Amino acid sequence: MLLDKLLANLTVEVEPFALCQVSAGWRLRLPGPPKPLLHFVLQGVGAVLDPHDTAQPLAPLWLSVVPVGARHALECGGGVQNEVRIDAPPAGEPVCHFVAGTPDSAELVVACGLVNVRYGPSVSLFEHLRQVLAVDLSDRPGISAAFQAILAEQDQAGPGSTAMTAALMTECLVHLFRRLGTGPGGSLPWVTALEDPRLGRAIDRMLAKPAADHTVESLAETASMSRSAFAEHFTAAFGRSPMSLLQHIRMQQAAHLLRQESTLSVDDVAARVGYSSRSHFSEAFRKHHGTAPTAFRSAQA
């Protein structure tokens, strides 16, 4: 299954975690993160609130995932009357602390950190997350030890800490995606969709050969579906049309090549992602990334 392939080839980048400490009767308001944000409950019982203040319960060894830009909050206890608002996302020198109440009386302790989770350079696995998730991982073996080790690595960084942290986080995320693929509701739509071998074949073809001359018709044929049924199922599963996702994959691949392959010209990069015209490629790249390919490459240097 394609889901197995994705999980076997995750690229995970973890930014420094913060510890959020919340006393009973307090709420900690957090801004919308620039990248997907993880909250892992180390201690206590509370709730995570989405931008509409809809609460989902939290308990020890639960993992919450907050989509890009979603303002949210952590709270502890009933009858919350006190609130602290944080204006910047959890980041900074490991391991910083955000406190609502007092540290000595904190009942809810949560490790919070930004992550970038991709399949290769092309697909962000939280790309289509539109709601705050809260997932019970308390029965997953080793999950607590893995998060404690992540915090320890970030608190006392040594040689190989970045690689070790990414490996530990990958273990935790595999547990998360397994649960999302089998649990009822509140799931990432594409996790379940990739269990459908028909859609899986089409996505696999896009990822393997992004520069090929794909059409909705050719991808539907790969999926052994009619054009209309394929387009409908694909859009429902991934939140965008097949051609829109293909464009995204091509532009992400182009960005990766511009960053990593300095010997490739912009024309070479364009050809590798399916463009015979540099001007058409540059226009598409600027529309997707907000800057021209040459400017993007210079900014990465």
Describe this entry's structure for a reader.
The chain is an alpha+beta fold and 301 residues long. The chain folds into two domains: 9-184, Regulatory protein AraC (Jelly Rolls); 197-300, Homeodomain-like (Arc Repressor Mutant, subunit A), CATH 1.10.10. Helix content is 41%, strand content 23%. It contains eleven helices and 13 strands. The strands form two sheets. Strands 1, 2, 4, 7, 10, 11, 12 and 13 form an eight-stranded mixed sheet that branches. Helix 6 (216-222) packs across helix 7 (227-238). It is globular. The mean pLDDT is 87.
Quick structural gist:
The chain has helices spanning 2-8, 143-155, 161-182, 189-193, 197-208, 216-222, 227-238, 242-260, 266-272, 278-289, 293-300, and strands spanning 10-14, 18-23, 26-30, 37-43, 46-49, 55-58, 62-66, 72-76, 82-85, 96-100, 106-119, 123-124, 133-136. The protein has 301 residues and is an alpha+beta fold. Strand 11 (106-119) and strand 12 form a beta hairpin.
Can you give keywords for this protein?
301 residues, alpha+beta, Arc Repressor Mutant, subunit A, 2 domains, 8-stranded mixed sheet, 5-stranded mixed sheet
